[in-house]
Amino acid sequence: MKDSDAVSELDLALVHALQIRPRAAWSELAPLLGVSAVTLARRWERLTGQGLAWLSAVPGPAFSRTRCTAFVLVSCPPAARERLAARVATLSEAVTVELTAPGGTDLLLDVLAPDPAALNRFVTERLALLPDVTGVECLFATSLYAEGSRWRLGSLDSAQLSALGPPGTGDRDADALLTLDALDRELLGALVPDGRLGLAELALRTGTSAATVRRRLRRLTASGVATFRCDVAPALSGLPVAVTFRGRAPVRDVNGLHRTLATLPECRLVAAVTGASNVLATYWLRDMGAVQHRETALCARLPSLRITDRVVGVRTVKRMGHLLDADGRRTGTSAIHPW
């Protein structure tokens, strides 16, 4: 990393604050972080310009109950991995695309669709028929206990966290997913590339008023239809190794496992899934040595859980619609339309 790219403690604190209050005005965060609003705006512009951090609208907690989420493992010839990943990243249903360590699965995808039938059509009629695809395994998520919008960088102290207050919980009316209109979708589409677009800019883009935009966004987030997520590159998180554990646990224990799996600070995802291995959990770790350590700790704390596979990510090509380079820095977007 060049000196001009160096990440400061203020940068880390700013990102953590935005993970809790994604659309807070700079003037609200300035007293908390001890600098001016102008300084925060400049810092955020630098972080986003260098692809180190970005903020976007993503499906909220209501999505996993009323729509369909799946994790798809794809196999291909070794020489085709990069080419296939780039092609799959252009598909709007594949919201996240990760290249994994060779030796079994080659790509791990997060796929969102309106319903199981639509997801099945995507997998069997589009994905599986792509050149170079030699195998596909689809794991439907039956419960999503933790995901990326809940992950925190851990840079703020207890006083700062208390001052920010708890994040809004939302999720009062999951049926709101069924009543989205063209304006709702247009707003969400504009906020996927840049979740901090202001009310005036959103009003201009959608041909409505700032008051209407404010009211619509409040409804979308309070209902759990959408939430906002601040993501970071490994250079900022200090956690370059992503590992996804697949495990098997008695059905009676699955609902309780997430209380342990999701409380660890490295946790990015915990889901109950279909298949013989009915638990899936993703962690961001500091190095490869931490993979074994994390697995050992999980098995010690959860005797009924048996780890059946470890899928190590070597490069994230696309994360929730954002394209990343080999260093995990954001370079652009590839449209997703989960709503």
Describe the structure.
The chain is of the alpha+beta class. Helices cover 36% and strands 27% of the residues. The protein is built from 13 helices and twelve strands. The chain has helices spanning 9-20, 26-33, 37-49, 63-66, 81-88, 116-127, 158-164, 182-191, 199-206, 210-222, 234-237, 251-261, 289-301; strands at 53-59, 68-75, 94-100, 107-113, 135-146, 226-232, 241-248, 267-273, 279-285, 306-319, 322-324, 330-333. The strands form two sheets. The chain has an eight-stranded antiparallel barrel, surrounded by four helices. It has a two-stranded antiparallel ribbon with strand order 1-6. Helix 2 crosses helix 3. It is globular, with a radius of gyration of 20 Å. The two termini are 37 Å apart. Residues 171-177 have low confidence and may be disordered. This is Lrp/AsnC family transcriptional regulator. Keywords: DNA-binding, Transcription, Transcription regulation.
